[in-house]
Amino acid sequence: MKVAFLVAPEGVEQVELTEPWQAVKDAGGTPVLLSTQGGRIQAFDHLDKADTFPVDQQVADARIEDFDGLVLPGGVANPDELRTDEKAVAFVREFFHTGKPVASICHGPWTLIEADVVRGRMLTSWPSLRTDIRNAGGNWVDKEVAVCTDGPNALVTSRKPDDLKAFCQAFLREFSAVSA
After folding, report:
1. Is 148 one of the annotated active-site residues of the chain?
2. What are the DJ-1/PfpI domain coordinates in residue numbering (predicted)?
């Protein structure tokens, strides 16, 4: 199982990157850090700078067929920056068009909204995105984890870092089904 983790050069919530990353590794998979720029990304612990992580590949050079699933971590600034990058948005959209599973947590669905892939889908997020999701045609629910298979692919979403355990278990189930 090879999983793409797409983040902006700055602003990802560190725990929303590192816990799912470790879950993929613990499941015997290969996580790959993609970003809109090369070098290192700067993670955050809420509003404070945390660690930096090396980018494995720029999203502009990534190929959908190389991955079994996509994880979109949150953090307020991270998805806000991603949704302004055409190549990042196109990469996300292509996962839906090819039927590959996607997992997103916290503010991560902002990138899904920009990719215009939430219409008719059930998902959850940080509560402040509720109106954005509904305005984009999605069905927002307040649950620890939402798994929606009513569409071209499986979509796994969660609200916040407190939901990470359930989020990781749910997306690993969906990603493993594809890579098997």
Report:
1. no
2. 1-173
**Using one digit for the tens of pLDDT, what is the confidence trace for 30-71?**
999 999 999 999 999 999 999 999 999 999 999 999 999 999
Cα→Cα distances 157→39, 51, 66, 139, Å: 28, 24, 22, 12
Say which of 97, 106, 148, 168 is annotated catalytic: 106
The residue with tokens 């070098």 is: 39
What is the C-alpha to C-alpha distance for residues 155 and 103, in angstroms, rounded to an integer? Answer: 6
Contacts of 134 (CB under 8 A, 6+ apart): 140
Q: How far apart are CA 169 and CA 92, in angstroms?
A: 21
Q: Which of 46, 97, 107, 168 is catalytic?
A: 107
Q: How far is residue 116's CA from residue 108's CA, in Å, rounded to a whole number?
A: 13
Beta bridge partners of 127: none
The 10s digit of each residue's pLDDT in 112-125 is: 999 999 999 999 99
> Is 46 among the catalytic positions?
no
CB atoms inside a 10 Å sphere around CB 39: 11
Locate 113 and state its tokens: 């909204």
